[in-house]
Design goal:
- It is built from 12 helices and 11 strands.
- It is α/β, with parallel strands linked by helices.
- The protein has 2 domains: 37-167, 3-Layer(aba) Sandwich (Rossmann fold), CATH 3.40.50.1980; 181-302, Nitrogenase molybdenum iron protein domain (Rossmann fold), CATH 3.40.50.
- The strands form 3 sheets. Strands 7, 8, 9, 10 and 11 form a 5-stranded mixed sheet that branches. A 4-stranded parallel sheet has the order 4-3-5-6, with helices on both faces. A two-stranded antiparallel sheet has the order 1-2.
- Helix 5 runs antiparallel to helix 6, helix 5 (141-155) packs across helix 7 and helix 6 packs parallel to helix 12.
Amino acid sequence: MDSCGVRMIGRRTAMTLLLGLWICASLPAAAFAVSRIEVSDDRGHATLLDHPPARIVSLLPSLTETVCELGACSRLVGTDRYSNWPDSVKSLPKLGGLDDAMLEGIVALHPDVVLASDSSRVVDRLDELGVPVMALRSKTLADVHRMLDLIAQLLGTQGRGDAAWRGIQARVAAAATRVPPVLRGQRVFFEVSDAPHAASASSFIGELLAELGLGNVVPGDLGPFPELNPEFVVRAQPDLIMASDVELAQMATRPGWGVLEALRSSRTCGFPAAAFDILVRPGPRLGEAADEIVQCLTRLGARGIP
């Protein structure tokens, strides 16, 4: 029986191998190819690649920083003119901005994919030329989370996007515990650029302020980053004002703004350029942005400013 059993096992093994070889020979070669990468952007357009991109052009600082955060900085071959972090991207070819991206310069770099804002004027032209482009929206914290996940999928680094998002959340939560109790609930006017353009409650900056226990004088229904009538700010009388240090220094000279009690009492946070970049970029450094805000609040609290 033992010898018969061995013979039976041998026959079954041989039949299994022959069947396997027949199945393999019957399948098309494509069945053994690496799965193609397919990622849909915020327009609903799908980007199809045969392999993770080796040559990437990024046309927004937050996108540049995301690529680097996800471990693919070496794949960048060009960026917009404002991308300046990390230091390694400063030497890359600079290709304009939202409204004046250099189409010929982008194409000449032969990118496997271009990462751009969904509001960039160059997106449609890249589509027409057949250059793979992912157009992404980045106005809210949910947008940031989605952007991290989509770019991680595109890079072939699935999982790193969600890990980066969890890191942001943990750092923001830790920063929130350090906000001086006397300043919790204070109403903030956060100016992103002169005109003035402000970060409303529905923007990623407004949502970050809310997670730190702060309010916002600009309602979200005005849009994420509305241009305000200067009188709006005067009427709102914010408890705290946050802006770049350059803009903050000249706010009191704006018509009517001298009556703002926050300016008169120095209940303000003026951020130097490097810190302000972190604050206004919806990318992987939002945890650091929370720290920057809390450092200012801590200084105000130490001065006894209610």
